[in-house]
């Protein structure tokens, strides 16, 4: 289990904008489920964006016009017989708020208004939707989430991420074909948030350590790596000659059961061992690995330390169903035990 308030803290590390003044009211509010939390963040974020001004972009328009504008579409003009009306079909760019990102936000707000969130939040969303009257909604299934962010639209990055969590992680199709919002994010989306939270926590709270999500090169004898798969770490912490590679895992079951015996997921253990051995090419023993599972309500939870081929490999669980100060203590303890910081 995970406390709803802790999901807000996780999001605030993943998206630093949530620490700014405008979101303080959301931080102090109590929420019954993740859907209400995400809706509240979206409402506050969209309200702030409206005050700044909704982003605009050039959008291609196609229209039959009496006066020439942009480029003439000859084939469309012939097909629609617009010349009989003394018009031509023209394609032209218009600087409009009907941008793709605004359309994603409009689609998400429309979905929330039809969902089971509180009446008060639905009322707030309907007020905001007035500002999106010229924005066309999208089909949820066809949204392209591979968007480019720059200094002109960076204020949209968190908003689009929240929209993604709502539309991809909280929506569930029922047996009658309708959709409803789940109380908790699905496992896949929670896993990604869990990874990003831990990485960004160490980046912010422990500047004395270099925290990254670095790729690990294969330690081949002749340097030939053609067609070898990419080894991408979740979190890599470095300080001096010491390195800790953390693989963050968010599963409903942290162990697997074989013949009534609980064992670690073999694939996870093979993976972290491979990361460590390919990093510690000189066999110094200064590279360590850790599988960091989010704690579940299972009776058997891993908390083990192993010495493998001269390197330390540990398996730990992080309790997310507690006060955030305790989560902070657990994460700080990992740094202290590995790098010797107080």
Automatic annotation (TrEMBL):
This is 5-methylcytosine-specific restriction enzyme subunit McrC. It comes from Caproiciproducens galactitolivorans. It holds the Pfam family McrBC. InterPro entries: McrC, McrC_bac. Transmembrane segments: none annotated. GO terms for biological process: DNA restriction-modification system. PANTHER family: PROTEIN MCRC, TYPE IV METHYL-DIRECTED RESTRICTION ENZYME ECOKMCRBC.
């Amino acid at each position: 289990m995970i406390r709803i308030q802790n999901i807000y803290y996780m999001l605030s590390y993943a998206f630093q904008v949530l620490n700014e003044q405008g979101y303080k009211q959301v931080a102090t509010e109590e929420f019954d489920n993740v859907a209400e939390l995400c809706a509240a963040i979206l409402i506050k974020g969209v309200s702030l964006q409206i005050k700044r001004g909704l982003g605009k972009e050039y959008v291609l328009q196609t229209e039959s016009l009496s006066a020439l504008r942009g480029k003439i579409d000859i084939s469309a003009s012939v097909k629609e017989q617009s010349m009989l009306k003394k018009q031509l079909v023209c394609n032209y760019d218009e600087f409009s708020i009907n941008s793709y990102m605004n359309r994603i936000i409009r689609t998400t707000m429309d979905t929330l208004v039809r969902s089971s969130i509180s009446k008060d939040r639905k009322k707030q969303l309907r007020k905001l939707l007035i500002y999106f009257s010229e924005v066309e909604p999208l089909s949820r299934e066809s949204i392209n989430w591979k968007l480019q962010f720059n200094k002109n639209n960076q204020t949209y990055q968190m908003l689009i991420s929240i929209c993604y969590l709502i539309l991809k992680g909280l929506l569930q199709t029922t047996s009658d074909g309708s959709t409803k919002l789940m109380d908790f994010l699905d496992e896949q989306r929670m896993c990604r948030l869990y990874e990003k939270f831990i990485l960004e926590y160490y980046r912010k709270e422990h500047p004395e350590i270099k925290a990254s999500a670095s790729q690990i090169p294969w330690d081949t004898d002749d340097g030939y790596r053609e067609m070898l798969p990419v080894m991408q770490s979740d979190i890599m912490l470095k300080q001096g000659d010491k390195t800790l590679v953390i693989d963050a895992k968010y599963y409903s079951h942290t162990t697997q059961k074989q013949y009534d015996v609980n064992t670690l997921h073999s694939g996870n253990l093979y993976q972290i061992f491979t990361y460590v051995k390919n990093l510690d090419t000189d066999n110094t023993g200064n590279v360590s690995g850790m599988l960091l599972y989010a704690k579940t309500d299972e009776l058997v939870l891993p908390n083990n330390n192993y010495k493998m081929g001269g390197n330390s490999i540990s398996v730990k669980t992080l309790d997310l169903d507690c006060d955030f100060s305790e989560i902070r203590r657990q994460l700080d303890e990992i740094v202290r035990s590995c790098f010797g910081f107080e």
